[in-house]
Amino acid sequence: MTETTIGDGDLGERFARVAAAVDEACRSAGRSPSDLTTIVVTKFHPASLVRELYDLGVRDVGENRHQEAQGKAAELDDLDGLQWHFVGQLQSKKARQARRYASAVHSLDRDSVVDALADDSGAILDGFVQVALTDDPGRGGVAVGDVERLAERVLATPGLRLRGVMAVAPLGEEARPAFARLRAVSERLRAIAPGADAVSAGMSHDFAAAIAEGATHLRIGTAITGSRPEAR
Closest by alpha carbon to 161, among 186, 189, 183, 128? Predict the structure, then answer.
């Protein structure tokens, strides 16, 4: 099933079609759909679309730009139970602001961001170590060999709870072998943090491969939201 096929129809139809495709991928992998969290990435879309998604039952949404996320979260603070996942590269100087609205940051990839997210108030923020599956620095992530070291830093940081790992499949490569490498990193991480068993992987075009390799959190945008508006 291609992204174009999934993306046809109105918002409700697209959402239902993706949910059915996720269920089918879970059945093929011998997994339960209840083990997965689908995060709808609403980059560049207005807050009104997030409100429509909420009415469809969506409670987990993702953003990759701090300014946009902050504005939408403030506009939609009346939506009880809505969880904001920050899935893009986070600047250290914006990290403390991100804590005010985010329930999770999926892109911990350097010491300065981890340190900036420290908080002694008792509030807990979920964190995923982003793993680089390619040498392209533009894709973000920490080198595979440095994952445990950064994870130890997260574990020692007040106010952060290490949930697991995150990655984006490399361009120009089959997604499933890349996600298999991420799965191996996840297994290594659990040796030092048994509870950090979450795997954030899989987008509109490759979520079936991610499910087959153990993803627990999918980050799906255009297949549900439709084509993105131009950046504002």
Answer: 128
Angle between helices 47-55 and 66-75 (to 10 degrees): 60
Q: Do the domain assignments include residue 147?
A: yes
CATH number at residue 177: 3.20.20.10
State which residues form the domain around 23. 3-225
91-107: pLDDT as tens digits:
999 999 999 999 999 99
| Per-residue model confidence as pLDDT tens digits over 34-79 | 999 999 999 999 999 999 999 999 999 999 999 999 999 999 999 9
CA-based torsion, 64, 68, 73, 76: positive or negative = negative
Q: Confirm whether 230 is domain-assigned.
A: no
Determine contact, residues 95/118, Cβ cutoff 8 Å: no
- Separation between Cα atoms, residue 211 and residue 26, nearest integer Å: 7
Please indicate, yes or no, whether the overall pTM of this predicted structure exceeds 0.85: yes
